[in-house]
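// run 5 | inverse folding | seed 20
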């Protein structure tokens, strides 16, 4: 086995026997090596690796290509670098180093003892090298990424012989959305193995994930929670990010474990559905005890929690808000000018069909006539309802929104009508008001009313007729005074004919019906884009769009309507360099330039060059250079833009691929 280093003690002989069985005889050494290591060895053999050589094309990126990758992962590097330096201070002069890699195994940053760093450089354990399993064999970084769990690889457990002098402990880093975004590794000489190293790596990634979560959601309400109050503030606490109107934006892995739920059952849900308490009541209790923790019961067990961040007044918590959550800027600058109040006047940007809808609904202001807003998903129905509310005499009272399609049928009744304490299993002992009661004096907006269950349609009709609501578990009717606005993307007449929507409720709701035009049908896209950009930056320096960029926006079909346009404008502004104010085609997402294919027409919507493609070569069409570049582009597209995967598929290094794409 050449220079293969085998650990001493019981582990060493067993590992040596396992390697002989696996590498020399081609058999599986069952029971002699950790199952996770054996799975990795088998993957490496399928990759075509041998124990003597790394995969061809595994050389490190050059300085410019590495800088490109570091910039692409700038947010991760900025948040984790201080943690790496702190960890290194704890292990200094122990013959080791701390490493940060991205989600593909590319080493982004390293810090370590000079003597060990010199040894590590000889096997490319340095920034710019990829330690993906399929290039470097079994190793803590690549195996942690493959297994998505913390990994320790000791000495000859490394697939490649020349890596056997290493002992490496790596722990994956997951972003606030649960996606794997990187890995933190502590590597050292196998003769100086410390049993606590893997624990230190795991603790460091927990701290990193906490920093990433709190940084990304600095402008949201952060809910910290744990079964034990003394764990609040520690890396073991659960974290949830919540909007002032009570929507859960994100929740970390610890939080999912504590609550015993899946991420899909928590994110984009109302706060009360996840935490079984009204956000408004917790905010009130937190204000009375700002530095203390709160106690609440979730799934039958007591949980301690704290609320941090910009807490809204209790009257504005629980789906009562001034601006749609998606319209809040990503960064709140102290010097930013206040956002103008959304009214019917400010909503009008010149489109004749929208103007006609505004003129019709304006006549209903102050009248007890329900409004029905129809239009495609994302066409701005909730914004229109909010503008209607702000333009009328109820503008100082609550605006309460409920999406009938986003809440499970089992919960929508308690959300809408409220409940008395003890009305059902898990109900709060003090009860909770429903959306109808919260909207008293103001406006209740029922989005996607066509998705409301039939049995609740009868109860809603009774509320509208009697002007009172009876919470679940109660016999006392509560008088309410609300202005009702509904919205749907369905054709309710057809739903009535099919029997899925009550005819009497349809005529009760359909006082005035207005239809909002789809974005592709509007004639004011330029004005709308300019307005969205101005609201996003809200500062003295205006943002401009090049003529070609604006034409691309106007040509696009906009299946996601205004919601999609708003996201495109936000992303384009975020891609501007410091001091840059002109948005060009290169700042726009790729889908704007992808034409849907139809019979007899495969011509792209955009007549010019794809702004995301590399600069054209000066060679004649059909030259070897051009053919190679086009092949690289097709491969890169087929693997979803993953540089590492494209390079492996082409059988070339990442440096060569970068040169072919013209990115350097």
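// decoded
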């Amino acid at each position: 086995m050449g220079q293969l280093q085998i650990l001493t003690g019981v582990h060493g002989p067993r590992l040596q026997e396992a390697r002989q069985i696996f590498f020399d005889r081609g058999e599986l050494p069952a029971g002699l090596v950790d199952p996770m290591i054996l799975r990795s060895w088998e993957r490496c053999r399928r990759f075509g690796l041998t124990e003597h050589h790394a995969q061809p094309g595994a050389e490190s990126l050059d300085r410019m290509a590495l800088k490109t990758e570091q910039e692409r992962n700038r947010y991760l590097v900025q948040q984790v670098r201080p943690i790496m330096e702190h960890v290194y201070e704890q292990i200094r002069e122990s013959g080791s180093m701390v490493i940060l890699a991205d989600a593909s195994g590319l080493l982004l940053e390293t810090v370590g003892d000079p003597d060990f760093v010199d040894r590590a450089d000889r096997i490319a354990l340095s920034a710019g090298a990829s330690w993906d399993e399929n290039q470097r064999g079994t190793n803590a970084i690549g195996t942690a990424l493959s297994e998505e769990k913390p990994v320790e690889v000791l000495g000859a457990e490394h697939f490649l012989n020349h890596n056997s002098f290493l002992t490496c402990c790596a722990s994956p880093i997951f972003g606030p959305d649960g996606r794997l975004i990187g890995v933190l590794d502590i590597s050292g000489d196998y003769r100086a193995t410390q049993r606590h190293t893997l624990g230190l790596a795991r603790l460091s990634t927990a701290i990193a994930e906490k920093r990433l979560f709190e940084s990304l959601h600095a402008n949201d309400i952060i809910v910290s929670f744990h079964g034990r109050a003394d764990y609040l503030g520690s890396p073991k606490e659960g974290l949830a990010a919540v909007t002032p109107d009570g929507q859960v934006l994100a929740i970390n892995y610890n939080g999912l474990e504590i609550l015993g739920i899946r991420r899909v059952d928590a994110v984009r849900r109302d706060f009360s559905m996840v935490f079984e308490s009204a956000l408004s009541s917790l905010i009130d209790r937190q204000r009375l005890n700002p530095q203390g923790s709160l106690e609440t019961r979730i799934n039958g067990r007591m949980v301690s929690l704290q609320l941090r961040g910009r807490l809204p007044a209790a009257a504005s918590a629980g789906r009562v808000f001034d601006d749609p959550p998606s319209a809040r800027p990503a960064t709140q600058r102290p010097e930013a000018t206040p956002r103008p109040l959304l009214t019917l006047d400010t909503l009008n940007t010149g489109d004749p069909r929208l103007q006609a809808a505004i003129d019709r609904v304006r006549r209903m202001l102050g009248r007890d006539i329900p409004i029905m807003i129809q239009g495609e998903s994302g066409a701005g129905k909730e914004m229109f309802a909010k503008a209607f509310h702000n333009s009328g005499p109820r503008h100082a009272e609550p605006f309460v929104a409920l999406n009938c399609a986003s809440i499970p049928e089992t919960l929508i009744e308690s959300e809408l009508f409220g409940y008395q304490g003890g009305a059902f299993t898990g109900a709060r002992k003090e009860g909770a008001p429903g959306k109808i009661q919260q909207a008293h004096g103001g406006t209740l907006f029922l989005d996607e009313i066509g998705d409301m269950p039939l049995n609740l349609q009868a109860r809603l009709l009774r509320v509208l007729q009697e002007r009172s609501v009876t919470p679940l578990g109660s016999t006392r009717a509560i008088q309410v005074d609300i202005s009702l606005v509904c919205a749907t993307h369905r054709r309710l007449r057809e739903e009535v004919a099919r029997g899925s929507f009550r005819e009497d409720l349809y005529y009760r709701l359909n006082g005035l019906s207005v239809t909002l035009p789809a974005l592709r049908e509007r004639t004011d896209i330029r004005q709308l884009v300019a307005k969205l950009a101005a609201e996003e930056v809200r500062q003295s320096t205006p943002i401009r769009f090049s003529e070609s960029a604006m034409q691309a926006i106007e040509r696009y079909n906009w299946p996601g309507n205004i919601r999609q346009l708003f996201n495109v404008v936000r992303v384009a502004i975020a891609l501007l360099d410091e001091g840059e104010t002109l948005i060009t085609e290169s700042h726009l997402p790729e889908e704007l330039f992808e034409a849907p294919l139809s019979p007899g027409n495969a011509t792209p919507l955009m007549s010019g060059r794809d702004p995301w493609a590399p600069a054209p070569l000066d060679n004649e069409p059909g030259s070897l250079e051009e053919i190679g570049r086009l092949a690289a582009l097709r491969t890169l597209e087929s693997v979803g833009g993953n540089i590492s995967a494209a390079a492996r598929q082409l059988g070339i290094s990442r440096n060569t691929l970068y040169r072919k794409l013209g990115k350097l």
